[in-house]
Design a protein that fits this description.
Blueprint: H1 3-14, E1 37-42, H2 48-60, E2 71-76, H3 83-96, H4 105-116, E3 119-123, H5 127-143, E4 147-153, H6 159-166, H7 170-191, E5 194-200, H8 221-226, E6 227-237, H9 240-246, E7 256-264, E8 275-284, E9 287-290
Parallel strand pairs: 1-5, 1-6, 2-3, 2-4, 4-5
Antiparallel strand pairs: 6-7, 7-8, 8-9
Helix pairs in contact: 3-4, 5-7, 6-7
Length: 293
């Protein structure tokens, strides 16, 4: 093996696994490993974006306060990334992790800048642009061993546009996403990254009002074959006595509860059977707060 080849292999081996990114979401020892894909699926307003911010912050925060300290690429296809919200969550987590000796404002800003330096945001406005971005991303992956996570928000952003452009041919409708999924598969295999992607729920059947119509995978088969973990997000109203028991002004913030049901069929698992886990959380100014079972 050439020296450059040996160096590349060493960098890939050093890429961090994200199996412990959030134990409260995934089955025990079942978090996403190298080369695996997590799909966050649900209708609008079910907490997918807040969950993404939570996971993103966990990645870029320093190890000293419970972060993973890895680089993240955020592909924003919906143009919905709220940087002010993200910065607010980061500041809250950094403040919560401070030592007893209060640092200066300058050191606070330096810590925040260091976290944000681990994040690369790229906007895509079409399936073609997403495909080109994934091609060019290979350079960053080969040169940055600290880059462990790729976030796509959302992978289904161009579904209806591609359907219109493809006409009556299903093959034409799915052609671009097929190519994106195939390229993603190669990047996952060759560079050992982890992918998190949101997917909007749509109703595929008009036969009845059942909510299960929303839960059926509808993106192309190559994408479905990549997904190893599926987080099905939903929203529910908490019982009124929960708000009454909370006390103070915080009780209103706890009324909206989100539930995540994880289905995991990790390729790295010794068992071929699927594992399941359900978690609930609410959203505060400082981000996601999980509810203990």
């Amino acid at each position: 093996m050439s020296e450059s080849g040996a160096q590349l292999f060493a960098r890939l081996e050093a890429r961090r696994s994200l199996k412990d990114i959030e134990p409260r979401l995934f089955p025990e020892d079942g978090g996403p490993d190298h080369g695996e894909v997590v799909e966050l699926y649900g209708t609008e307003g079910t907490g997918k974006t807040e969950l993404l911010y939570h996971l993103l912050c966990r990645c870029v925060l320093p190890v000293a306060i419970g972060g993973l300290e890895v680089d993240v690429v955020f592909l924003d296809t919906d143009y919905s990334l709220d940087m002010l919200r993200l910065v607010g969550i980061l500041e809250s987590r950094l403040n919560a992790g401070r030592s007893s000796s209060s640092p200066s404002a300058a050191s606070d800003e330096a810590a925040l800048r260091l976290c944000l330096s681990r994040l690369l945001v790229i906007h895509c406005s079409s399936s073609s642009q997403l495909l080109l971005t994934l091609h060019f991303l290979e350079t960053s992956l080969s040169s940055r061993p600290g880059l462990a996570l790729l976030i796509i928000d959302s992978i289904s952003a161009f579904y209806w546009l591609d359907r219109c452009e493809g006409g009556a041919s299903l093959a034409k409708q799915e052609e671009k996403l097929n190519k994106c999924a195939e390229l993603l598969g190669r990047l996952l295999r060759d560079y050992r990254i982890t992918v998190f992607a949101t997917c909007h729920a749509i109703r595929r059947s008009c036969s009845g009002p059942s909510s299960s119509d929303y839960d059926r995978p509808y993106l192309c088969r190559p994408w479905q074959q990549l997904v190893t973990h599926r987080l099905l997000c939903s929203r529910q109203e908490a019982a009124s006595n929960m708000a009454a028991a909370a006390g103070g002004s915080r009780e209103q913030k706890r009324q909206q509860v989100f539930t995540v049901h994880c289905t995991s069929s990790s390729s790295s698992s010794s068992s071929r059977t699927k594992a399941y886990r359900s978690s609930s959380f609410y959203v505060t100014d400082g981000g996601v707060e999980f509810i203990c079972p």
